[in-house]
Design a protein that fits this description.
By secondary structure, the chain is mainly beta. It is about 5% helix and about 45% strand. It has six helices and 55 strands.
Length: about 775
């Protein structure tokens, strides 16, 4: 064997010399640390959603060679949270095995440590094979695979009879061909798509796709009629992503892991874990045009029939591919104008009408200044979708490797996937005093993905299409800093800000006329300063509720699993429909300071911190609660706070804050329940005006707690103990009570100066 080890002590390549076969699917021997606070039982119990709660990775890793010759030995040391580890990696001459010896000085509580070994091996069944030194094991494996494939017939259903089906026989398309032909149909899978109005991932759209769009088969021209018996097992592949699994590493994060520094995301990986269980159906459920895979006995009778694209349902490399299906990093971009050397473009027009083409592409480390330039992008043939969302394919201006400086310019697009300004990978965009208008779907105004960086000053941005946030990020994240300007989205499923990156906005107008105002997914953050934020999300029966700001984890792979952060200081929030803050299936931190909040009289809640019904694939129903840390500073709030027993909520009111509302425990989406909590902390100068009976886990209050008439509210324990005897009609029931409040756990606000960027001299 030949094994390659990176500086983190991870096996990046593991090759059998006689065959050249690569066994490493991703970096192996990678440590993963998860929260392990069991919802039901503390000992010997691991929750099914533990993979959604990864908290850290190995840090401070050093790799030292301690021996070579007939046996090579590496010593790896590092730190994981508060623990340290030492590992010896051994590879002996002529050996087909790498050995790992690991010692961990464990200093964690409620944490689970695992080591991942993703391999480039997939077997649907196994057979014992004697291993010989001449490599016959691999030959036997290949033979077994060929036998398996011989017994499986793929095809497209042409007719369904009484006890039989007729199929047009096909073969699986090569990956590259399939990716090309399905790029148009693959869904975008950002929260924009998974919010109430998204068009790209709803069952409605899925049902509207034609069999031609969905097929990954190359038809041979042969037709075959197959007998279906009472013993035939018929299943339908589920389009649901595996529940409780993190997305696979790579390109973005597709596995919930952070891509190694400097690595380019690799697209097309499926969520890790077992394939989703198929749904058992009957012969009458099979429809003309369905794609099927059939196993038959020696007499030609069907043993099994699986309905669904043959590319579905596998593990890494063969499955659904997470959101976006089989989209891969472009080998090259098509561009009407490419800039590979430092240049200045002034007072001219740049146009692009090609399919999935950039009007301006900055690459090879170039520094390009655009001053007084009109950039136009039009195309009726462009596909948009994941290639545009993740990599900037078809954007008007794309900085892929280099720096673009844009000022006093106009950017207009009328093409699917036609983002205005896009920063990807090693690309950086600086933009000032310019106007951006986009008209079609998947066309964000300003956009960063794959680690790109974008800075903006005083832009006028407006988008019209679906999944077209005015300020937009996507898979792989990045950094966006916006100072002043106006940013408006009009399309369904198009927030003013879609956040899978670290974004800060100051002194701006952010308006979503057809969507929630903000979506934050996974381990990402949005900081708003002196900014006016407006949302207008429509009610939709596919959603458990309606919101203005959502912090969640979709499990789509578009963002790393972790803490979602929303901080806002000054400015205003206007909610034109629905509740205000909704968090589900994620850890989150929300901090507000002196924000002017207005919402309709029919607003359902101020904050909802609960599980969800999993209709959109957000975790496992009954086990997809939220873990929210909320802090109000000098903040007026109105509306109920809703929580459930599969969620954790710490709610701090500090520095003269006030809440007019009740705390409501609602178990609608909590399944069998859990050991979640709602802890409320009220500072001496803060006031809780109670508008209904409330139930919480603990109350620590030095402040004022009264009803709307100023009457004292009764506070009693779950066991009936009366802590405060009031004259109000309302009662607060709590598991524990104290008349002091430890506010040390409240969140301190970051300052705009922590994010503010210096405007380049060229702008």
């Amino acid at each position: 064997m030949i094994a390659k080890i990176n500086r983190k002590g991870e096996v990046t390549s593991f090759v059998l010399k006689e065959s050249g076969r690569e066994f490493a699917a991703e970096p192996m021997n990678r440590f993963h640390l998860y929260k392990d606070v069991a919802r039901l039982f503390d000992a010997w119990d691991i929750d099914s959603n533990y993979q959604e709660q990864e908290v850290t990775a190995a840090e401070g890793v050093t790799v030292t060679k301690v021996a070579d010759g007939l046996e090579g030995v590496l010593k790896v040391t590092g730190k994981i949270s508060e623990s340290t580890y030492t590992q010896y990696i051994r590879l002996a001459a002529e050996s087909r095995r790498v050995k790992f010896e690991t010692e961990v000085d464990w200093r964690e509580l409620h944490r689970l440590l695992k080591v991942g070994f993703p391999v480039n091996v997939y077997a649907e069944n196994t057979e014992t094979v004697e291993t010989a030194e001449d490599g016959t094991e691999e030959a036997a494996e290949t033979e077994d695979k060929e036998k398996k494939e011989e017994n499986v017939t793929l095809g497209e259903v042409k007719a369904v009879g009484d006890g039989s089906i007729t199929i047009a026989v096909g073969t699986r398309k090569e990956k590259s061909e399939e990716a090309e032909e399905t790029s148009e149909e693959t869904s975008e899978e950002t929260s924009e798509e998974t919010s109430e109005e998204t068009s790209e991932e709803t069952s409605e759209e899925t049902s509207e796709k034609t069999s031609e769009e969905e097929s990954s088969l190359e038809l041979t021209g042969e037709e075959l009629t197959i007998t279906v018996t009472d013993d035939t097992v018929i299943t339908k592949n589920s389009m649901q992503k595996p529940e409780g699994k993190e997305p696979a590493d790579g390109e973005t994060p597709a596995d919930g892991e952070t891509p190694a520094e400097g690595e380019t995301p690799t697209e097309g990986e499926a969520p890790q874990g077992e394939p989703p269980a198929g749904e058992t159906i009957t012969l009458s459920d099979i429809q003309e045009g369905d794609t099927v895979s059939v196993t038959m006995d020696e007499d030609g009778n069907a043993l099994t029939i699986t309905v669904g694209d043959p590319g579905m349902g596998g593990g890494p490399g063969g499955g659904q591919g997470g959101p976006g299906g089989m989209t891969e990093t472009p080998e090259e971009y098509a561009a009407a104008n490419e800039y590979t050397e430092d240049t200045t473009v002034e007072n001219t027009s740049l146009e692009s009408a090609g399919t999935d083409e950039n009007a301006a592409l900055i690459s090879e480390g170039a520094n390009a200044v655009f001053d007084g330039v009109e950039i136009t992008r039009t195309s009726s043939e462009s596909k948009g979708g994941d290639a545009s969302s993740f990599y900037g394919v078809g954007a008007a201006l794309l900085a892929e490797d280099g720096t673009a400086l844009v000022k006093n310019s106009t950017i207009t697009t009328d093409a699917a996937g036609g983002a205005g300004l896009f920063a990807y990978g090693n690309g950086t965009v600086y933009a000032a005093d310019s106007t951006i208008k986009t008209s079609q779907d998947t066309s964000g105004g300003i956009h960063a993905a794959g680690g790109g960086t974008l800075y903006a000053w005083n832009l006028d941005v407006e988008t019209e299409g679906e999944s077209s946030a005015a300020i937009r990020s996507d898979r792989g994240g990045g950094t966006m800093v916006v100072d002043s300007g106006k940013y408006v989205s009009n399309g369904v499923g198009s927030p003013a800000v879609y956040c899978t990156a670290d974004i800060a906005v100051n002194n701006a107008e952010l308006t979503a006329n057809g969507s929630e105002a903000v979506c934050i997914e996974g381990l990402n953050s949005l900081h708003l300063y002196n900014t006016n934020l407006t949302g207008n999300m429509s009610d939709d029966e596919q959603n458990d509720t309606t919101w203005t700001v959502i912090l969640y984890q979709s499990m789509s792979g578009d963002s790393e699993v972790g803490n979602s952060t929303f901080q806002m200081e000054g400015g205003s929030i206007t909610s034109q429909n629905g509740g205000l803050f909704y968090t589900t299936n994620t850890e989150s931190t929300i901090a507000l300071k002196d924000v002017d909040i207005s919402s309709g009289d029919d607003s359902e809640f101020f904050l909802q911190c609960t599980g969800n019904n999993n209709q959109r694939g957000w975790g496992t129903a009954g086990d997809n609660g939220a873990d929210c840390h909320f802090t109000a500073q000098s903040q007026e709030m109105k509306g109920n706070v809703i929580w459930d027993s599969i969620s954790d909520l710490d709610f701090y009111m500090t520095e003269g804050s006030s809440l007019t509302g009740a705390f409501v425990q609602d178990e609608t989406y909590a399944g069998e329940g859990g050991e979640g909590y709602c802890n409320v902390y009220v500072s001496k100068d803060s006031t809780w005006t109670v508008t209904g009976d409330s139930k919480i886990t603990s109350l620590s209050s030095e402040g004022t707690i009264v009803d709307t008439d100023g009457k004292t509210v009764t506070i009693k324990g779950e066991d009936g103990t009366v802590y405060v005897e009031g004259d109000s009609a309302y009662t607060i029931t709590t598991g524990s009570y104290q008349d002091s409040a430890d506010l040390s756990g409240s969140t301190a606000m970051d300052a705009w100066s922590d994010y503010e960027a210096e405007r380049p001299a060229e702008l």
